[in-house]
């Protein structure tokens, strides 16, 4: 369509029918013109509510084009009129549409999915709604973008007549937002008539669930709508037995909210209504957990539910257990009043309710003891083994079946165990001579005497044990002991290394090598650690090198945390060990959390190891950890400039690497704010990428958001990056928008000082940077907020009106919030000022009776001040009196202050502030003149000095107190405005 004539737009807006007719007489097609949003003159007139003008327009143009025209919001003139609340006009347009048989225009839905019936019901125009239903019943079938039907809205708004009419239409929609239906709405609004009508016409809706898994019956129980629940149950008593998808029964829902009346009403219709949820918790358990004491008393008084008092939930606890555990004395008392309560019922841990108090003295000990007993009992039941519990708490098990326990003939002898712990070789040798196989016995943990000796570091004992086994006639006589594995998966070698016995481990390693026991050397414990892992982690570098020489295969293993020996060595900065491992081509280099050895080199800041890794395994530089961070990204995040330099010198293309989620390295630099890393990166890669792959943000945005001033200045001074000052992010916002939102005047000023900054750029909402100050009401009285607003005004004088409107808007908002908090504000001001006022009044009152110079003892002037004739003394009396009077006035005004009157607070603050300054100046004057009276006759210079200091003190006080504001005033000059800073 053609663009609307400006004169026609003016006529349609003002309702000028004469001008419109004149325009149409010259050019009949002029009426079909549209504004940029797609509005015709009929739309404009409908929006403005000019009913007569609309009639004139439709009389001039008999074609259906105007009535059917749709603007960019998806609105016809009918929709535009209804949406603005023009009921009479909408009725007239509806008649015209019906006369011209324009069903599509009547049924039209706007871009939010709302049709004329939605808007009419939502705005409360019930007559218009009924008229719409009569004219076009199909309107009742539509749902909007939030799944709301006209019937649902009518039920929510309690429009019974409209709801009844819609329910008469068999195919009218009944859905609502959040999974609600019309019956949910009737329950929520408490409309029994609609609920009854729905049950008569659409009874199946009673079993439909919303997004919270609540049916209308559950919602009635949840909201405590007893009457609505009664209507539903009277129509269909079986609804009382409904269980939600989550397993919630109606009694459980009522219990969670404490609605005892709902429970009683439900049981009247359904005496055996279910009372347990999916977790086997009864409604009594739920009520106890939610703290609804009255509900508990209510249901325990009901015959149908009295038996719940001793019932266990899915965790094996009664309601009394829960009440005691949660320290609810009122609940415990309510439960104990029931005649059938059994306080001795044990929970699943074997404790009565009295033993589950969280602060019980011996609760933990008792619980552990009971658990140990139950564990032992369970073992007896499952294995048939005989169990004995010694005094030390260890459980000894003997079983004829070797599937669970070791045969008693292989158990280590108690004397041998003691000898291994103490390193008593003589005792061990004596036992070995008497019983040849005794050295192969193990503890319940699978430890041989060699394990025990290795753990305790008894090298001599280990040598003697292995010497004895070597003397036996066998191809590998020491193998059974050296290769034995305990319950932790440890060989003696692993046990020695893990326990930190370097010399002993070296000896055991030698014996394993002599016996060619590679498997014993390569063994990994249950956590995946081998001897090399432990040696490096414990810092035994010499042993680690010995292990690598003896068995290079150790370097290939990774533990359950994905850590390789190389990774641990690099993390601990063991360059020699790392170098040795890098010489093995197939040595593992992975680490925890997706790290590799190069990540570790960056983390430890070791450029030597990093260089060696780049020479041997350059591919590691592009691998990412679980946070999708490469070693390059990590180098800039940790500000490891030396390592970064090594990586870039070896492969400068690494500076252009993006992570899997599209983050460039400059983005990581900007997040941390490290200028050195940025400078080093741009030195090698002058055109390094600066924006995320998805265009969400640039590195300059990140620097602003992080408040990194030094990095920001570096970016703005960079020839490559200076163009970023006006580049927008995904929300169409420049870095200046972010700086204003953060309310950081230093960053805002730095951006405004850049010659290329455009302060007029609009974001996705059509707002310039200045308007981002609007939501920050909490900061409106701060120096930063005011400085930012004044800086923006100085940078863009054309936005003066916007700044003025913004200040007015914020001022109104701050005033409104202050009115809400008037009592606290009044208390704060009165308490502070009255305290100082009373203090001044106290010592000025005392000074009046301890006059400088004292009192005369002469008969003629006895009792009169000695200095009474001196001008300085008279000035002292006047200033002292003035100080006391003003401070007393402030103190008593504080007492009579009206606590909830904002205007009085403004008056009080202004008036008392002036009085306090008078009191302050008068007090310093009284001090100066009093001392001057005494000192002047003998020490005139000192008296004058004190007077000058007293005069300067109020001036200095004012200057120091207001210095931040004064500095801002000087900096901003004429653009400075203090109205928000001065507000209460």
TrEMBL record:
Cellular localisation: Membrane
InterPro entries recorded: Ankyrin_rpt, Ankyrin_rpt-contain_sf, PGG_dom
PROSITE patterns: ANK_REPEAT
Keyword Nucleotidyltransferase belongs to the record: no
Domain of life: Eukaryota
A GO term from the CC aspect: plasma membrane
Primary site of residence: membrane
Record carries keyword Acetylation: no
Keywords, ordered alphabetically: ANK repeat, Membrane, Repeat, Transmembrane, Transmembrane helix
A Pfam family that the UniProt record links to this protein: PGG
Membrane topology label: Multi-pass membrane protein
Positions annotated as ANK repeat: 212-244, 315-348
Signal peptide: none
Designated name of the protein: PGG domain-containing protein
Phylogenetic lineage: Eukaryota, Viridiplantae, Streptophyta, Embryophyta, Tracheophyta
């Amino acid at each position: 369509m053609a663009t609307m004539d400006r004169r026609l737009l003016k006529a349609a807006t003002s309702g000028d029918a004469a001008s419109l007719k004149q325009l149409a007489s010259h050019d009949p097609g002029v009426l079909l013109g549209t504004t940029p949003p797609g509005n015709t003159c009929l739309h404009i007139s409908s929006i403005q509510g000019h009913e007569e003008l609309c009639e004139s327009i439709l009389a001039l143009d008999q074609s259906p084009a105007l009535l059917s025209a749709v603007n960019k919001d998806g609105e016809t003139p009918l929709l535009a009129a209804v949406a603005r609340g023009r009921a009479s006009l909408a009725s007239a347009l509806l008649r015209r549409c019906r006369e011209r048989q324009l069903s599509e225009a009547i049924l039209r839905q706007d871009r939010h999915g709302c049709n004329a019936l939605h808007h009419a019901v939502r705005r409360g125009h019930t007559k218009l709604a009924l008229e719409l239903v009569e004219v076009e019943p199909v309107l009742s079938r539509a749902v909007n973008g939030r799944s709301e039907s006209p019937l649902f809205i009518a039920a929510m708004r309690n429009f019974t007549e409209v709801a009844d009419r819609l329910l008469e239409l068999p195919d009218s929609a009944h859905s609502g937002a959040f999974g609600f239906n019309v019956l949910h709405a009737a329950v929520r609004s408490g409309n029994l008539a609609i609920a009854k009508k729905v049950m008569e016409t659409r009874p199946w809706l009673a079993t439909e669930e919303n997004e919270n898994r609540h049916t209308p019956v559950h919602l009635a129980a949840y909201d405590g709508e007893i009457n609505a629940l009664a209507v539903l149950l009277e129509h269909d008593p079986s609804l009382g037995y409904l269980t939600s998808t989550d397993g919630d029964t109606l009694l459980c829902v009522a219990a969670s909210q404490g609605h005892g009346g709902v429970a009683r009403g439900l049981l009247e219709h359904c005496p055996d209504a279910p009372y347990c949820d999916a977790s086997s918790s009864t409604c009594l358990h739920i009520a106890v957990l939610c703290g609804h004491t009255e509900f508990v008393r209510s249901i325990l008084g009901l015959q149908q539910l009295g038996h719940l008092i001793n019932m266990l939930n899915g965790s094996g606890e009664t309601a009394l257990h829960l009440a005691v555990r949660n320290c609810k004395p009122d609940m415990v008392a309510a439960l104990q009043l029931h005649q059938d309560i059994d306080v001795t019922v044990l929970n699943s841990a074997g404790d009565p309710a009295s033993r589950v108090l969280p602060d019980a003295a011996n609760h933990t000990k008792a619980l552990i003891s009971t658990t140990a007993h139950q564990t032992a009992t369970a073992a007896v039941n499952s294995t048939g083994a005989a169990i004995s519990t010694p005094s030390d708490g260890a459980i000894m098990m003997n079983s004829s079946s070797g599937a669970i326990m070791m045969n008693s003939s292989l158990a280590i002898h108690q004397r041998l165990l003691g000898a291994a712990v103490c390193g008593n070789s003589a005792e061990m040798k004596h036992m070995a001579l008497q019983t040849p196989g005794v050295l192969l016995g193990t503890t319940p943990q699978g430890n041989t005497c060699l394990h025990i000796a290795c753990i305790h570091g008894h090298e001599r004992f280990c040598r003697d044990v292995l010497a004895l086994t070597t003397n036996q006639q066998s191809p590998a006589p020491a193998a059974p002991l050296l290769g034995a594995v305990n319950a932790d998966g440890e060989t003696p070698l692993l046990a020695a290394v893990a326990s930190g016995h370097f010399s002993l481990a070296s000896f055991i390693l030698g014996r394993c090598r002599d016996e060619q026991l590679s498997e014993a050397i390569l063994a990994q414990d249950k956590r995946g650690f081998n001897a090399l892992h432990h040696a490096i982690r414990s810092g035994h570098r010499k042993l680690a090198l010995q292990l690598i020489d003896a068995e290079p295969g150790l370097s290939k293993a990774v533990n359950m945390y994905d850590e390789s020996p190389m990774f641990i060595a690099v993390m601990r900065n063991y360059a020699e060990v790392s170098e040795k491992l890098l010489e093995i081509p197939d040595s593992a280099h992975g680490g925890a959390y997706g790290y590799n050895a190069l990540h570790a080199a960056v983390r430890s800041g070791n450029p030597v190891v990093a260089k060696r890794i780049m020479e041997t395994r350059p591919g590691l530089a592009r691998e990412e950890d679980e946070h999708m961070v490469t070693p390059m990204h990590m180098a800039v995040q940790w500000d490891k400039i030396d390592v970064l330099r090594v990586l870039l010198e070896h492969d400068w293309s690494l500076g252009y690497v993006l992570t899997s989620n599209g983050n460039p390295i400059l983005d990581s630099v900007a997040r941390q704010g490290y200028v050195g890393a940025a400078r080093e990166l741009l030195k090698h890669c002058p055109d390094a990428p600066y924006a995320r792959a998805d265009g969400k943000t640039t590195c300059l945005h990140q620097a602003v958001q992080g408040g990194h001033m030094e990095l920001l200045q570096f970016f703005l001074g960079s020839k490559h990056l200076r163009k970023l000052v006006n580049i927008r992010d995904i929300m169409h916002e420049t870095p200046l928008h972010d700086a204003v939102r953060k309310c950081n005047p230093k960053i805002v000023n730095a951006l405004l000082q850049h010659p290329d900054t455009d302060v007029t750029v609009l974001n996705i909402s059509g707002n310039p940077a200045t308007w981002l100050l609007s939501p920050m009401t909490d900061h409106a009285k701060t120096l930063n907020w005011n400085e930012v607003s004044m800086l923006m005004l100085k940078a863009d004088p054309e936005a003066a009106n916007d700044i003025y409107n913004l200040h007015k808007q914020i001022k109104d908002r701050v005033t409104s919030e202050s009115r809400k908090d008037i009592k606290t504000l009044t208390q704060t001001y009165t308490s502070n000022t009255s305290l100082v006022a009373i203090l001044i009044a106290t010592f000025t009152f005392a000074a009046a009776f301890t006059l400088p110079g004292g009192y005369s003892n002469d008969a003629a002037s006895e009792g009169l001040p000695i200095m009474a004739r001196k001008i300085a003394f008279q000035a002292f009396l006047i200033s002292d009196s003035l100080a006391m009077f003003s401070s007393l006035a402030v103190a008593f005004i504080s007492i009579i202050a009206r606590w909830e009157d904002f205007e009085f607070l403004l008056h009080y603050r202004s008036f008392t502030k002036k009085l306090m300054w008078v009191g302050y100046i008068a007090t310093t004057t009284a001090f100066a003149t009093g001392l001057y009276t005494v000192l002047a006759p003998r020490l005139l210079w000192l008296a004058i000095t004190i007077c000058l200091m007293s005069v300067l003190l109020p001036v200095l006080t004012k200057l120091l107190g207001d210095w931040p504001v004064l500095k801002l005033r000087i900096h901003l000059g004429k653009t400075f405005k203090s109205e928000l800073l001065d507000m209460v």
